[in-house]
Amino acid sequence: MTGTESCIISLRGVTKYYNGEAVLRGINLDIHDKEFITLLGPSGCGKTTTLRIIGGFVTPDEGDVYFNGRRVNDVPPYKRPVNTVFQKYALFPHLNVYDNIAFGPRLRKVPESEISRRVKEMLELVNLRGFERRSVNSLSGGQQQRVAIARALINDPKVLLLDEPLGALDLKLRKDMQVELKNIQQQMSITFIYVTHDQEEALSMSDTVVVMDTGEIQQIGTPEEIYNEPDNAFVADFIGESNILDGTMVSDFDVVIFGRHFECLDKGFEKNEPVDVVVRPEDIDIVSVEEGMLSGVVTNVTFKGLHYEIIIDIEGFKWMVQTTDFWPVAAVVGIKIDPDAIHIMKKSKYSGAFGDYSSFSEELDKLSELEAQPEQPPVEEEIID
Amino acid sequence: MNKRSLGARLAAAPYMVWSVLFVVAPLIMVGYYAITDSTGAFTVANFAQLGTYSDIFIRSIWFSLIATLICLVIAYPIAYTIAMRRERSQRVLVMLVMLPMWMNFLLRTYSWMAILEDTGVINTLIGYFGIKPFHMINTPGAVILGMVYNFLPYMILPIYSVLAKLERSMIEAAQDLGAGRFQVLTKIILPHSMPGIASGLTMVFVPSVSTFYISQKLGGGKFDLIGDTIERQFQTSYNYHLGAAISFVLMILILVCISVLNKFTVDDEGGLLI
Prior knowledge:
The complex is a heterodimer.
Chain A: E1 7-18, E2 21-32, E3 36-40, H1 47-55, E4 62-67, E5 70-71, E6 82-85, H2 97-101, H3 103-107, H4 112-125, H5 141-153, E7 159-163, H6 171-188, E8 191-196, H7 199-205, E9 208-213, E10 216-221, H8 223-228, H9 233-238, E11 243-251, E12 254-257, E13 260-263, E14 273-279, E15 284-287, E16 294-303, E17 308-314, E18 317-323, E19 332-337, E20 342-346, H10 360-372
Parallel strand pairs in A: 3-8, 3-9, 6-7, 7-8
Antiparallel strand pairs in A: 1-2, 1-4, 4-5, 9-10, 11-12, 11-14, 12-13, 14-20, 15-19, 16-17, 16-19, 17-18
Helix pairs in contact in A: 4-5
Chain B: H1 6-34, H2 45-48, H3 54-83, H4 87-98, H5 105-116, H6 121-128, H7 140-164, H8 168-176, H9 181-210, H10 214-218, H11 226-235, H12 240-264
Helix pairs in contact in B: 1-12, 3-7, 3-9, 7-9, 8-9, 9-12, 11-12
């Protein structure tokens, strides 16, 4: 294989069917050594299946998986140089913390004295000094999570797979663990492949983000690239907030929205090519009507702590603007958009699926309903010093 | 604060009455009969006689131990196979395991007589192939077979129920950490199923050791077991006092056996059914 030599793991055209339905379609992915890579997408996008294929728990129906250039499609999990932190930790309830962590080295017949030293080291690493004899059932969710990480890392894997490891933790703890995981990855200097549906988590931890939807990769890039230069409307909508408008690329650096010309930094499109235009809400300035490039009426204002979220109706399209200045509902205002705040995307199958914020309040209702009944109740965490 | 409400105590009352009437009172009566003679005077003579029954005690325990172990060996793979199926087929298979228990116990034992007899089903069948008939009925093997057949479901069900609760991710985690098929079995699945095995052992051993009738029908009366002896004291000899004494000792023996068993299968999840 060409181009896979520098990669620790490569997927080539990986496809998987469940009950005749494709859950992965032709995934091509190169994972580099010592990289923190995140598979990000909504549930059902195929991110967990991809991870399980790398772990060896699922065999692809088509395509190949390479570890260091060697095809490993049929290598069972226990012979792969990877370890996994499972979504619900999967600790062994009949073993205490020490024996859980020592499970891997004992299978490899490492001398007990060496195991004892390594377990100590691992407990130190995950901040669980002195927990050796505790039963895993007596631990809080966050502590179980740390044991699961220690149990995986003690085997010196080249790659650690993490399947939504923070999904069951509450928000505050999740943030702390994000920092901690990133530190552990740098300290051990190994590759982390991380699965999550939380875009904020993905952006703050990763070297590389892989955005997936409906079994396909939508975009691969650094967090900055993914956020600032989304490839299509799905990525723009899934990562952060976006106003996605229909526009026409009249010529290089000149896009027409609502019949008005805007200067932008994008080029290389056909003359008069229809495009999707993304403007992030925090990049829009609210000004007086005279100064504005477009003008409209404020229909909704929400205080968010750091800023106000203001919905402005401009010729029927509801824009979201995030600003620290307060504007009252019914105020007539103008908006100003700098050239570097405009991002142009080619039309895709997602065009038109995401648009303005006219259904915003409904969307919010739906979201808060979902949050009111989480799939897994967050686990209370006690403070560890 | 420690006082329970009147309602809670009222709700518990029927169960209290039930246990006093049907558990505590009979136990006291057995104890009373065991330490008295026919005139109602205190005596230890009933227990003094027990020495003559020691070979029956030993035989009962021996047969039951063998039957229990055979049950374990047969039941474990069955329980495992059922537990690894999809949920719908699991229900059907569990139903099939329980189905024979809906049939009368005496009827099932009689059928085995018909199967094992010298001119029974098996010997007739192998006769067609020119094989000489085996003598099977009225042997220790036939008695143990009867126990295994009748009590096997009590071994399968508890083991199945703990295995069904074993999460798939637990097995995957072990594989991920380097365990092959055999190590997954010995290091994860077996330890996880210990509480089920312990319940199964108890639930088969206890009825086996106290059973009557199986030995009378399949052993031809040659292998008296404790259950048969107790039955005889009450039904034919009308010696309630000796019968009570034997029952009493049997009860203590069973308690000892169970506590020994539980020592080997320490369980902190409270999975024991008995």
